[in-house]
Design a protein that fits this description.
Blueprint lengths: L1 E6 L8 E5 L5 E4 L10 H7 L10 E3 L5 H4 L2 H6 L5 E5 H31 L11 H7 L3 E4 L5 E2 L4 E7 L7 E9 L2 E7 L22 E4 L11 H18 L3 E5 L5 H14 L7 E5 L1 H12 L6 H9 L9 E4 L2 H6 L7 E5 L9 H8 L6 E4 L8 H6 L4 E4 L2 E4 L3 E4 L9 H8 L9 E4 L4 H13 L5 E2 L6 E3 L1
Parallel strand pairs: 3-4, 4-5, 5-6, 10-11, 11-20, 12-15, 12-16, 13-14, 13-15, 16-19, 20-21
Antiparallel strand pairs: 1-2, 1-22, 2-3, 7-8, 8-9, 9-10, 17-18
Helix pairs in contact: 4-5, 4-8
Length: about 475
């Protein structure tokens, strides 16, 4: 049995790991898009290193596009196997993949206009919204902690990781000639004490552990500190400077956490009297799915819901869906909070809000999640004085702030503490994925200090025998 790493290998995007069993079964662990790589992104996503019809199953740890986003492309190119995930992941994919397909179509239309001016032939979108809708027929969802027999030699059980709604460790058992081999693939690991979700939960002992490392070289502030910092940013921007606060945030997970934190400030009577707009149709749909899956919620938010039945809404909060209402936000002159996708600032409506706001020193751009090194978000976050948005150069005069505690990824202590649900002495191999290489090297040292051995950091395309 072997596994080959085709994405999120010494980088943070494009999770795809192909497990091939001794009896010829091919199981893809996640099927994510590469994101934030500029012009090479499209070519990377199109060049699948395996034949989609040959894949028997996709085991999906969660719905983020860098883990799920190529499933419609696989379907478009002949994949007819099953996609196995948790119930909430299936529900989120039903809206997130359709949204991604819509973006693919829109971006291709814009791209083809530029190609036509150069006399070049048009290109096809990676996949369409219709592909994304159709591929949902392949999904098989299962509740947490229920073992699903995938076929005669493979079973899988999902355990909550607290990273996002429905996220899970996939514990896979493969029956071989030498007995059962147990593989645990963590996907992305959340933080203990998440504002909304249950904390990551222990998963069954594995022989092989494959785990992420996004923040494997740093520690996060506490939630209490970050909520107070959010209050201070709102106060400084909207009250003292009377400016706009732009919060680029992923539509699923991060947006709901920020809204919940603001909702708590509102309930405490501390939130300044400024309007808040969530400007993303996907965020609206995702929030409705959050409301359906209270089984994923922790005790704190359930206690809040005893007196506040909607923790994702307050009187001065407005959800925007139409393009026309989104454009009207640019005309607002008074202080306002705008939460909009995408979190890495590479696509979506947030780019228009940045273009309208980033050159005004009274405004603030608040970064609340990881931005891959080549993205617009990373350029703004590292202090570039000028950035290009929709082909136009803008001076960065707005205040740029960061609150890393809103990240859905655990830091090195939180992740390594969580992995101690495993007995390191019983693990044959520990394989680190989903992280920049320098971060992975640092994280491997933290794991070694906790007793983990035989740690591998695969390169893209590398195969490891299991």
């Amino acid at each position: 049995m072997k596994i080959t790493f085709y994405g999120a290998a010494r980088e943070v995007t494009g999770s795809k790991h192909l497990l091939e069993t001794d009896n010829g079964k091919k199981i893809l662990l996640d099927c994510g898009e590469f994101q934030g790589k500029g012009l090479e992104t499209r070519d990377l996503n199109k060049a699948l290193p395996f034949d989609p019809p040959s894949i028997d199953h996709i085991i999906l740890t969660h719905a983020h596009i860098d883990h799920s986003g190529l499933i419609p492309y696989m379907y478009h190119n002949g994949f007819t196997g099953s996609v196995i995930c948790t119930n909430a992941t299936r529900d989120l994919c039903s809206i997130m993949l359709a949204d991604s397909g819509k973006i693919q179509e829109h971006d291709t239309l814009t791209f083809n206009k530029k190609r036509a001016k150069k006399g070049l032939p048009p290109v096809e979108p990676l996949y369409t919204q219709a592909d994304a809708v159709a591929c949902m027929s392949l999904f098989i969802s299962v509740g947490y902690d229920r073992k699903l027999r995938v076929d005669e030699s493979i079973s899988v059980k999902f355990t909550n990781t607290g990273h996002m709604l429905g996220s899970a460790v996939a514990s896979i058992e493969v029956r071989t000639a030498n007995g059962v081999k147990k593989i645990a693939y963590t996907g992305d690991i959340g933080r203990p004490g998440n504002r909304i979700l249950k904390s990551p939960e222990p998963f069954p002992q594995a022989d092989i552990l494959i785990t992420e490392s996004t923040y494997g070289d740093r520690l996060h502030p506490t939630y209490v500190e970050s909520d107070e910092e959010l209050f201070n940013v709102v106060q400084d921007t909207c009250v003292r400077k009377k400016g706009k606060l732009i919060i680029p945030a992923f539509s699923v997970g991060r947006t709901q956490e920020i809204v919940y934190a603001l909702n708590n400030l509102y309930n405490q009577g501390r939130l300044p009297k400024v309007d808040t707009y969530v400007d993303s149709p996907l965020s609206v749909n995702a929030t409705n799915i959050f409301r359906l899956h209270t089984e994923c919620f922790n005790k704190n938010i359930k206690d809040v819901m005893l007196t506040d039945p909607d923790p994702f809404g307050y009187n001065s909060l407005f959800y925007i869906t139409s393009k026309e209402d989104s454009m009207k936000l640019n005309d607002i002159k008074q202080p306002v909070i705008i939460i909009s996708a995408s979190g890495m600032m590479e696509a979506g409506r947030v780019k228009h809000h940045l273009a309208n706001s980033i050159s005004n020193p009274n405004n603030t751009v608040l970064i609340v999640g990881y931005c891959a090194p080549t993205t617009l978000g990373a350029r703004i976050g590292r202090g570039d004085k000028k950035v290009s948005i929709h082909g136009v150069e803008y001076a960065v005069n707005a205040d740029i702030r960061k609150i890393e505690a809103f990240s859905g990824h655990g830091d090195y202590k939180e992740m390594s503490d969580y992995l101690m649900c495993q007995d390191p002495s019983l693990l044959e191999k520990v394989i680190i994925v989903h992280g920049e290489y320098s971060t992975q090297l640092a994280y491997s040292k933290h794991l070694e200090s906790k007793g983990f051995k035989n740690i591998f950091i695969p390169d893209k395309g590398e195969t490891i025998e299991l």
